Automatic annotation (TrEMBL):
Listed GO CC annotations: membrane
Top-level taxon of the source organism: Bacteria
Full protein name: POTRA domain-containing protein
Compositionally skewed regions (Acidic residues) per UniProt: 9-21
Ranges of residues in domain POTRA: 58-126
Localization terms from the record: Membrane
Keyword ATP-binding set for record: no
GO biological process annotation, one example: cell septum assembly
Chain residue ranges for the region called Disordered: 1-22
High-level lineage: Bacteria, Pseudomonadati, Atribacterota, Candidatus Phoenicimicrobiia, Candidatus Pheonicimicrobiales
Length: 268
């Protein structure tokens, strides 16, 4: 005969088995629901992905260009190699950036997508600092010496100083002028502009430590060795210019290369 304790144990075992079965069934249902949920998400995601990459809704129909001054929007757009009508997600932004960075005028650059169909190109241009005569050609240069572009022999339309006398005979667009004389010449002509605005617009490099600044028609010339001279001798230079004007002197040039003085060399 089965006693009461054995019956109770059997009942407890049966209850435990039922609970385990229910737990296993619940876990199985939960896993199935999770799998179904992710399958649905994956299916929707796949279809959305295909829609975004294949739909004309995401084709590029506008390129917005910001920050340009010297370069035209057409020049920047052509250089970017962006094709209107191409799917925005298939556009290689790194390729666009690398292509635009080949343009010397562009200093800083950002290209971004604006969903669904716009590309924004934001850039910062280099500043033109001087016109440089090299190998019988005229180039626009930045203050760092980066050759930005070539221009016609006239510098009309450009309010920039002209630097003559560099010994290099050729240079390519985008390359840097490394000659120390270039930097010194630019400092000298900029110092002259601070002291006497619009007075001098040409600087000639006569030797590595010998320079001549001139006015537009080459009737006023000042010879010096370094930028500090024009700053330190500002008063002497003003007095010399006043003397030349008052006495209507015919002057070959003003020499500021002496330590504490300057000399007015009169034409014979």
């Amino acid at each position: 005969m089965i006693n009461d304790n054995e019956k109770e144990n059997e009942l407890e075992e049966e209850e435990e088995e039922e609970e385990e079965g229910e737990k296993s069934q619940y876990f199985g249902v939960k896993v199935t629901k999770i799998l179904i949920f992710y399958l649905i998400i994956g299916f929707l995601g796949w279809n959305f992905f295909n829609f975004m990459f294949d739909s004309k809704f995401c084709n590029i129909d506008e390129v917005i260009i910001k920050g340009n001054s010297y370069l035209s929007e057409n020049e920047i757009f052509a250089k970017s190699q962006i094709k209107l009508g191409k799917n925005i997600f298939k556009l290689d932004l790194n390729k666009v950036i690398n292509s635009l960075k080949e343009e010397p005028w562009i200093r800083e650059l950002e290209v971004k997508r604006v969903i669904p169909n716009k590309i924004i190109i934001s850039l910062e241009e280099r500043k033109a600092a001087a016109i440089v005569y090299i190998g019988e050609e005229y180039f626009i240069s930045s203050k760092e010496g980066i050759v930005l572009s070539k221009i016609d022999k006239t510098k009309r339309g450009f309010n920039l100083p002209l630097i003559l006398g560099l010994k290099i005979t050729e240079i390519k667009i985008g390359k840097k002028i490394d000659e120390t004389e270039f930097r010194t010449a630019l400092e000298i002509i900029n110092s002259a502009e601070v002291i006497l605005p619009k007075k001098f617009c040409i600087i000639k490099i006569l030797a590595p430590d010998d320079f001549m600044i001139c006015n537009e028609d080459d009737t006023l010339k000042v010879k010096l060795n370094k930028p500090e001279e024009i700053i330190n001798k500002e008063k002497l230079l003003r007095e010399a210019l006043e003397k030349i004007e008052n006495e209507k002197l015919l002057v070959e040039y003003i020499d500021m290369s002496f330590k504490d003085s300057l000399i007015i060399k009169v034409k014979k």
